[in-house]
Design a protein that fits this description.
One of its GO terms (cellular component) is nucleus. The protein has 496 residues and is an alpha/beta fold. It has 3 domains: 1-57, no CATH class; 64-261, P-loop containing nucleotide triphosphate hydrolases (Rossmann fold, 3-Layer(aba) Sandwich); 273-495, P-loop containing nucleotide triphosphate hydrolases (Rossmann fold). The chain contains 17 helices and 16 strands. Helix 13 (334-346) links the parallel strand 12 (325-328) and strand 13. Residues 1-12, 18-39, 47-52, 461-469 and 475-496 have low confidence and may be disordered. The protein starts with a strand and ends in a 37-residue tail after the last helix. The strands form 2 sheets. Strands 1-2-9-3-8-7-4-6-5 form a 9-stranded mixed β-sheet, sandwiched between helices.
């Protein structure tokens, strides 16, 4: 329960941190904090707790959001503001620069979108706001959120990301959208090469997943972008995790910012997320994976891997066993990446096999399960991966596969989280009944991978895949085995 707020000066800006313990003032009468005043102390605590509950029941209108945007929130199912929204929106509406720190899935996008849209409503003009995101998928998602929240005021957005033709993007910019959502590299390309495109009139700059922007070495590009933006603007940085790399960027981009922290640590995960692990021999990873997916049959799952090759291999393996899996990784064309996400969101595929391109910021509310088939290289990535489930107040499960080679990495993750994760009970005998069919599916996957590589060599790089054979184990919304149509037996080209 977040009750007391403390304000202090930190790195040139105010710091608003949210405490989880009530600050009872039992001694306010100068020494009457003894046992005989226990009843008065309890009354004060009860009053503080009631105040906190009232705070959590605030509406968007109570935060200063205007009626049309409140209606949009209602239509999207946003009943009450989240903690980061309660803290950040009033500050943003008052014109302050913000550094926002909150766990993933806490509603950061609406926290910066609503103040921008409200300001745009009062002063409509093109190129009003710019949002920078580290990944293409996150950029498209942010744009969709802006368009949904701003539907009643007809906000126009343009998404500027790599992997897409620059000409249609230049045409979209020529139509003078209100909001530009971009990845830094492609935005700089347009600033330098697209005639007539300028952000000199920009009013708002948002850097979402700001630490990730720096982790991906966007620092020099961000410096160039900041040089061509007007100094008189409002700026906000949002992320689930913050680190010292952001200090220089904060000093360069923000003016007297307010730091809003809704996490107890940099590695905070939501309370309604059940985090477990299984400790298994490396050689049986595939078999245990199939057992896990069978246990969670019918539920949606994001399966995280470390490499593009492993992502493709597992997608072939799961399809051979009639699981409805679809791959997502950075070597797919952008249209294929968006197509994979849309199919997963719509429910036509129940398993998304992905590299860490899907670990950051993606909001897919229906994800029931996250499996770390390969442990992430660092604790921060772990937090973002498991944050794909248990979003917006829903519950979720995250299971990490730990082998004899992963113990040290896993211990570092537990240390960063400040807790020991629960081991999931798995009986070896009930797992190994899948071994024969998994072995057959592995051989099919190897053949598919060879066919894929041959086609890539023929095309000079590209998608496609060979024919897929059913091995006779299914789950969820699979597309069937031998009865599938011939065109469905081939991995769709747009799916990699």
């Amino acid at each position: 329960m977040r009750v007391a707020k403390t304000e202090r000066r930190k790195r040139g800006g105010e710091d608003i941190s949210t405490s989880k313990q009530p600050q009872s003032q039992l001694d306010e009468d100068g020494g009457k904090g003894q046992a005989e005043d226990g009843a008065d102390g309890k009354a004060i605590v009860d009053k503080l707790e009631a105040s906190a509950e009232a705070e959590e029941e605030k509406s968007f209108a109570d935060l200063g959001v205007n009626e049309s945007l409140c209606d949009a929130c209602t239509s999207l199912g946003f009943k009450t503001p989240t903690a980061i929204q309660r803290e950040a929106i009033p500050l943003a509406l008052s014109g302050r620069d913000i550094i926002g720190l909150a766990e993933t899935g806490s509603g950061k996008t609406a926290a910066f979108a609503l103040p921008i849209l409200q300001a745009l409503l009062h002063d409509p003009q093109p190129f009003f706001g710019l949002v920078l995101a580290p990944t293409r998928e996150l950029a498209y998602q942010i744009s969709q959120q802006f368009e949904a929240l701003g539907s009643l005021i007809r906000v126009r957005c343009a998404v500027i990301v790599g992997g897409m033709d620059m000409v249609p993007q230049a045409i979209a910019l020529a139509k003078k959208p209100h909001i530009v959502v971009a990845t830094p590299g492609r935005l700089l390309d347009h600033l330098e090469n697209t005639k007539g495109f300028s952000l000199r009139s920009l009013k708002y700059l948002i850097m979402d997943e700001a630490d990730r922007l720096l982790d991906l070495d966007f620092g020099p590009i961000l410096d160039k972008i900041l040089q061509v933006l007007p100094r008189e603007r409002r700026t906000a940085l949002f992320s689930a995790t913050m680190n010292t790399k952001l200090d220089n960027l904060t000093r360069a981009a923000l003016r007297n910012p307010v730091r809003v922290s809704i996490s107890t640590s940099s590695y905070q995960t939501v309370a309604n997320l059940l985090q477990q692990y299984i400790f298994i021999p490396h050689k049986h990873k595939d078999v245990y994976l199939i057992h896990l997916l069978t246990e969670f049959s019918g539920q949606t799952c994001i399966l995280f891997t470390r490499t593009v090759t492993e992502t493709q291999r597992l997608a072939f393996l799961l399809r051979a066993l009639n699981f409805s899996a679809i791959p997502l990784h950075g070597q797919l064309p952008q249209s294929a990446r968006l197509g994979a996400l849309n199919k997963f969101r719509s429910g036509s595929r129940s398993i998304l096999v992905a590299t860490d391109v899907a670990a950051r910021g993606l909001d897919i509310p229906s994800v029931d399960l996250v499996i770390n088939f390969d442990l992430p290289p660092d604790s921060k990535t772990y937090v973002h991966r498991v944050g794909r489930t248990a979003r917006a107040g829903k519950s979720g499960v995250a299971v990490s596969v730990v082998t004899q080679y992963d113990v040290e990495v896993f211990q570092r993750i537990e240390k960063a989280l400040g807790r020991k994760l629960e081991e999931r009970a798995v009986g070896r005998e009930e797992v190994m009944v899948f071994a024969e069919r998994v072995g057959a599916a592995q051989r099919v996957a190897v053949g598919e991978m060879k066919g894929l590589h041959e086609k890539e060599r023929e095309r000079g790089g590209g998608g496609g895949g060979g024919r897929r054979k059913g091995v006779g184990i299914g789950s969820g919304k699979g597309r069937g085995g031998g009865k599938s149509k011939g065109r469905e037996d081939r991995m769709d080209q747009e799916e990699g």
